[in-house]
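Give me structure tokens for this 372-residue protein.
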Amino acid sequence: MVGGGPVGASLARAARGLSVALVAQQRPSSIIPEPFDARVYALTPGNAAFLKEIGAWQAMPPERLVPVHAMRIHGDQSSVLEFDAYGAGVPELAWIVEDALLQAALWRDLDVDVLAQCERLSIGEEWATVGLRDGTNVCARLIVGADGANSWVRSQAGIAASDSDYGQDAVVANFRCEKPHRNVAYQWFQRGAVLALLPLAGDHFSMVWSLPTGQAKRVSEMEHKTLCRAVETATRGVLGELALITPPRCYALRRLAAERMVAPRVALAGDAAHVIHPLAGQGLNLGLQDARALAAVLSSREPLRDPGELRLLRRYERSRAEPILAMDTMVDSLFRLFGAHGGFATRLRNAGLNLTDRLPVVKNMLMRQAIS
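Here you go.
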């Protein structure tokens, strides 16, 4: 396993019955960040259940795991689409989890790590060998690349990928809010820009504001009080007066799709295989679903069957093809629809939100897909 982030570490925990070596450059800190980590995820209930199954969920402080009970999505006019967990008969729509807490939990008691940098990969008929910078060679039947968008494994395996820049950066920061968030997540489409507020413990929330690169840089460099006022204005004061508690961070947004997820003795997972715009909050969810699917394929294989056999790995690839394509297409289409200018596009997207909000069957179908 190459890559020690949430996808690689979760797969290492889930790959029961296999001898696993995890190649990562460093072990994540076990120190709980205070007050909050700047980067958070909205995990589906399905992925929360997966993390419980592999023992990671229980290792996170329960007071820092925040359920989302409702979601309100606003168009760039007066349109709105609302989802409610109670009305749909589910306990929660998502769980908000901090990156640092998740990574520390996944690495807790994980004794399969080899901390080093990779230098070479050779694929043989029966084995794959990863050469490390310290001179060590790690031989395995299967190499899993969970090493991010700039995947070394993908490059070494000769798997091509289409890669494009959205021309946007995401600004992330955490705030204290005057009004209670009541476990509601908010999102505003702003003619290309997308602003999301995710509830944190107590009277706090996390912001993800996707903006054109130049504008994102200016927002991230604002004086703290000025940034608070800008967010208050953009969110129409929904949570009252704000106070910044975590300095803003900025990272570039891109779209990436590997042409294949498998090759002889190689499988890709997470950002190594696909990267999507964060407007739907589904990036890590797709990666954890990859880990779930690959672990299931490996654990259900016939006794003594080679885990690196290409025909076996194609089961994993086929199982992930449709969900990944559907999510990537939906997210990219939404980005382009809400980024389009002109009266017709504006009327179409806002009418679509309002219409969907009035169709319970469609809303429940969308929600069921999103919480898996």
